[in-house]
Amino acid sequence: MRTVLRALVLTSILTGCAASGPQTSTTPSAEHADYAVSYPGRVHAASARYEQEVTSVQQIKKDLKSYPEALQEPDWKVVQEVYELANADGQSQYYATIRQENAQIAEFFLTEQKALAQRTTASVNYQAKEKGCDVQLYGAVDHGLEKALEERLMEREKRASAAQRKLEQLDAPAQDKNRNTLERQAENIARLSHLVFVALPARHQELEQLVSTRSKVKRTLERRRKALEAVEKPKDKAAAASREEELQAIADAQAHLEDDVEAAETLLSLSEQQIEGLKASYEEEFNGLIEQVEKAQKSGTPEATDSSAEEKSES
Known about the structure:
mainly alpha
């Protein structure tokens, strides 16, 4: 379960557009001390998400050509429509928005999961004891919360997919044996399309924005360090501990900042060309998939892929 939630976080994107009328007025995040402390981690995480998303594209894409062979005597016109709808889903702003919202929810849950489970368990245990039951339910509550959240997030994503809606509303018994397979295939196509056309370009832009604020972040860290050191150490233990904790966090950020930014810069030097290559490769693979389905409409069966042909010759 946790793997699914982490995957949602990894595929989260930044979306937004310029608007007319009154504009917000805010100071840059790079000028905020807490943001500056978290900056190296943000850069590192964005780089890791980019690499994970590239890996996801490569893993999903390699299986596309074998999709028709996994179906049993389907209505090929329906199959083609589902595939094309899924491809369009992945490039939809609405689908992107839902995935972004899901990622934010999943990230919050993963961060706060222990505290949420503990508070929920305490409430459940209290009610149980009130009724004379002496039970400890932390594990069950923790698992239940995670399972329920995962199911709701997946349901939200399905509701944002025209391909999944099409499958849901099919009134054809002949399609029932293929329904689950087509659902998984449509889900993968939508995610793959989303990754290459929306998520990866957005991750590239996010990394560019992060790297561009390096100098401001460095100044903010140094300014905050000097401000803390200029003040006499508090006598109150809690206040003194807070001050020392922040000074240590600033020192850690300053120590890691350059390495993380340089790694991001290296990634950026390759990412634009890599993303364009992935787009072209996906379009070629998807067009080939549609051609397979169109041929199957005429012949009644899909052409065997290279891998399946090799397996048959070996046997």
